[in-house]
Amino acid sequence: MYTVVGATKSRGFRVMWMLEEMGITYDQNPAAARSDEAKKFNPLGKIPALVDGNDVLTDSTAIMTYLGDKHGQLTAPAGTPARARQDALTFWLIDEFDAILWAAAKHTFALPEAERMPAVKDSLKAEFVRSAAVLSERLDGPFLMGDQMTIPDILAVHCINWSIGAGFPSVDKKLGTWAKGMRERPAFKAAQTKEAT
């Protein structure tokens, strides 16, 4: 059985939601980022980690890619044009959504107070708004890649949720309605019920 290391209110949620969508049981170790417990699985203390037997994997996107490939779900097959398009969107989301939100978080609480530059957050919020408009324009179906849910859907919705909690401007109605529908999925709700820290 897999163990997801990380609090529910973290990037660990992405992995738990994916496992719920695939119908795969797992345990959760709700270690907080940078805690001694998290450092047992990642010397940097970053979460999430995934324990699969004797293997410990890190980075939420790498873990999701591994799970998708291993179980043949929520991903296009490796070595196909569809997978290349999916990977391109995944990398774009990491650059244009996740990285922006993480930069804002660093200047809010993660960096030592003397190193924070709160003024940069206005610029980051403007970047996020531009990227959200691009993503909204791209959305042309029930899911980002068309008729099938894939890893980018999980990544995008998690980032949209994060942006709400971080006080970023709202995404447009089209993207907001889509994200709301994704949050109504039983697997999303099941992952939310896990231990929160």
Give a quick precis of the structure:
The protein has helices at residues 12-22, 36-39, 60-71, 81-110, 120-138, 151-165, 173-183, 186-192; strands spanning 2-5, 26-29, 49-52, 55-58.
Q: Write down the overall mean pLDDT.
A: 95
Distance linking N and C termini: 22 Å
Helix/strand/pairing class, anyone?
Answer: alpha+beta
Strand order of the largest sheet: 2-1-3-4
CATH topology of the largest domain: Glutathione S-transferase Yfyf (Class Pi), Chain A, domain 2
Main pleated-sheet profile: 4 strands, mixed
Please explain how this structure is put together.
The chain is an alpha+beta fold. It folds into two domains: 2-75 and 187-192, Glutaredoxin (3-Layer(aba) Sandwich), CATH 3.40.30; 81-185, Glutathione S-transferase Yfyf (Class Pi), Chain A, domain 2. The protein is 55% helix and 8% strand. It has a four-stranded mixed beta sheet, covered by helices on one side. Strand 1, helix 1 and strand 2 form a beta-alpha-beta unit. Helix 1 crosses helix 6 and helix 6 crosses helix 7 (173-183). The longest helix is centred in the middle third of the chain and has 30 residues, at 81-110. The two termini are 22 Å apart. The model has no long low-confidence stretch (mean pLDDT 95).
